[in-house]
TrEMBL record:
InterPro entries: AB_hydrolase_1, AB_hydrolase_fold. Keywords: Hydrolase. Residues 51-150 form the AB hydrolase-1 domain. It comes from Aureobasidium pullulans EXF-150. The keyword Hydrolase applies. This is Alpha/beta-hydrolase. The keyword Hydrolase applies. SUPFAM superfamilies: alpha/beta-Hydrolases. GO terms for molecular function: hydrolase activity.
Length: 330
């Protein structure tokens, strides 16, 4: 049975989650002008007139992670459309793509859906893409951007990150062949071992801080909740459904020049930054540096929220507040 800590962060029932994630609305595709396909899932309000938020998943992640924001989005009557990046989930691969290429995909996708004005929500690895949207999309098109425990451009660095994640990003930068080899082996195991066994193994090892790269004690209740772990497995399996190429391209982009600067974000663009004081996946110092480069909020359009919590704690524990603050700006 999940304990009270789990219930506070993730009170949703397994039955409700399963029902939503197996519905047609979470496995939709759209053909971009380039001819490539973009995969997406729709969460929150089903009203055609509801404000639209495009949700950009973490790393590794997929459109299915939009489920984290489904229930508060529904209560607040906003539509949340979660997108797979190229080579991930249902989205066609795009060789040698850049961060800004995906920003153009989002604009083309919005145009195809006849959404003239929208907000962008970037979570964890999706934060870099959300910041790129803030820098590259005119403010008359993007109403507001919110970054939740999100990565920034690589020149900010990875100081303060837990050793497990730090090693992976250094591997992408200096030894990509090794990361590719290890991920190929992990994927081979993932596709041959039954999901139930993967979930059981993860739950059993959740108390092993070495295996988890130093998991915070506050996250252990979630990581030993079989329903939540199964959801995380589903999200990650969807990420790798086309193989490891999309994963490797993501890693390269996170450790290379992003093609834009935080300083390029115009004064009139509204941006909220949410970071956790106990987060070792994406430490709060990264968010503070992003905020500093945006001018520190002197224009009132940029806001920084440093809250108590880990990576999971910020995403799950603050999700309603995050959307409430975002809705104020749409």
């Amino acid at each position: 049975m999940p304990n009270s800590a789990t219930n506070n962060l993730w009170p949703e029932s397994e039955e409700a989650i399963h029902s939503i994630l197996t519905s047609p609305s979470t496995s939709q595709t759209f053909t971009l002008p380039s001819g490539r396909t973009i995969g997406y899932a729709t969460f929150g309000s089903s009203s055609p007139s509801a404000p639209t938020i495009f949700c950009l998943h973490g790393f590794p992640g997929s459109r299915l992670s939009g489920i984290f924001f489904h229930f508060p989005a529904k209560e607040l009557e906003v539509k949340l459309i979660a997108i797979d990046r190229p080579g991930i989930g249902l989205s066609s691969p795009q060789q040698e793509r850049t961060v800004l290429d995906h920003v153009q995909d989002i604009r083309d996708f919005a145009g195809g859906l006849k959404v003239q004005r929208y907000a962008v929500l970037g979570v964890s690895g999706g934060g870099l893409y959300a910041l790129a949207c803030a820098a590259a999309i005119p403010s008359n098109e993007v109403a507001a951007v919110v970054v939740v425990a999100g990565l920034g451009p690589t020149d900010i660095g990875f100081k303060g990150m837990g050793w497990g994640n730090w090693c992976i990003f250094q591997g992408f930068r200096y030894f990509p062949w090794l990361i590719n080899l290890l991920q190929e082996k992990a994927l081979a195991a993932m596709t041959t071992i039954p999901k139930e066994k993967i979930v059981a193994m993860t739950v059993r090892k959740a108390g092993n801080s070495v295996w988890l790269g130093g998991a915070h004690p506050a996250d252990i209740p979630l990581l030993t909740n079989e329903g939540f772990v199964e959801l995380m497995v589903d999200i990650q399996q969807e990420h790798f459904i086309q193989g490891v190429d999309g994963f490797m391209r993501e890693g390269k982009l996170f450790t290379s020049d992003s093609g834009f600067r935080i300083e390029d974000i115009a004064e009139e663009v509204q941006v909220d930054l949410w970071y956790g004081k106990e987060d070792t996946n994406v430490p709060m110092s990264m968010g503070e540096e992003i905020y500093k480069r945006m001018g520190g909020g002197k224009d009132g359009k940029k806001r920084f929220f440093g809250v108590e919590g880990t990576h999971l704690g910020v995403i799950l524990g603050c999700r309603r507040k995050i959307l409430e603050r975002l809705v104020e700006r749409i």
